[in-house]
Amino acid sequence: MDSELIRSHHENSRDTQIQYTQNFQYGNFTVVILSAHFSHPSTLDHKSCSIVSSNISIFSPSLASFSRPVPNPTTRQLTLHQLTTMDAFADSGELYTIRNQFYTNQHRKIQEYSLDQFSPENQLKVLEYKIRSAVALEEDASQLIDSGKSLFPNQEGLFQLLSAWNDLKSFGTDDSTYFDDIKSAQFELQAVLTAIYRVKFEKDVESAINILTSYIDNSNNFNELEPFLVLVQLHLATGNLQAANKVMLAFQKFPDSARDSIVYQVLESWILAIKGESDNISNAYYFYDELLSADFDNDPQGKFKLLNMLFVLTLQMKHYPEVQELLVQLKDLNITSGDFIANQITFDYLTNGGAQADELRSQLAKVDPEHQCLAEFQEKNAQFDDIVKKYQTT
């Protein structure tokens, strides 16, 4: 690490003004820290500094070969907090495990953490995970949110968002217009939850995609990965593999630490599964099989979702005896979902001629009456009826 440092210490003050340049490698990027202000000169680390805004630039050497001059084409402005957060999410950082648990639906484990197990600069993110996990478990997160407002008084916007998200469980969409009023997201979680709201409650996928795309296009933070996750999922759900690939290509320009994250690995597994072909499906399968090696005893919902992914991938590989074994494991959990029932319908057609398809569709109509599988079945029936009527009148 190369650095030049000029320090000025003010008498009778605990402040130290530091003007320096410091270069170091972060993945494929060169980070240049230009200036900082530290409150406690005796401890020059990320826990004791307050950063001057827009004081860190990241330069990508891969852009140096542009044939035409572009003003500062390789610069992205980050704060020191953003860099230290990136380190916290790295495989040696203290947020690495909890993030993996969150994105694999191990929400009970997350509820067991206390904030004092983490350093102060990471406690806000931990609390966010705890609140969102409570909501995912259909539990009231009001006490956690109130505690957060007291502990982090400068994060009013975040807790207003989380309150609105928590209230949806109790009051539905009639009690607040919070998400309806958002035209463009101001921070990462607002973009993510607004997009999910638009899809889940308004069935407006296009608006959700626009919210996420706009936020990603204007974001400078290499650690803000969840918008990519939701955006790729929406593109794949609408059958737009080309758009999903485009998002992945943008993601691949991020530092190695981002591409080593659980978020990138999940995105990659989805796209591999959609692309098909034996090697792609096998790679996706082994990824989810490895995730399943974690302890899910207290998080059956997380285990159910992983088994359902393996069910689909094994079905794609036409390994029907293994599919049957997975089906037994899934039913033993006494959990169901629209997607799981739809997958059973596919399996029944492939192995049993659709003998139980009508019964399964009846179950699906009770669990998820708006599921795409039912809509497609009704559409095909209508087309068939039209053909029959046409020939009956000739």
UniProtKB/TrEMBL annotation:
The keyword Cytoplasm belongs to this UniProt entry's keyword annotation: yes
Protein topology in the membrane: Peripheral membrane protein
Statement: the UniProt record of this protein carries the keyword Cytoplasm: yes
Pfam families on file: Coatomer_E
GO biological process, one term: protein transport
One term of GO molecular function: structural molecule activity
UniProt-recorded name of the protein: Coatomer subunit epsilon
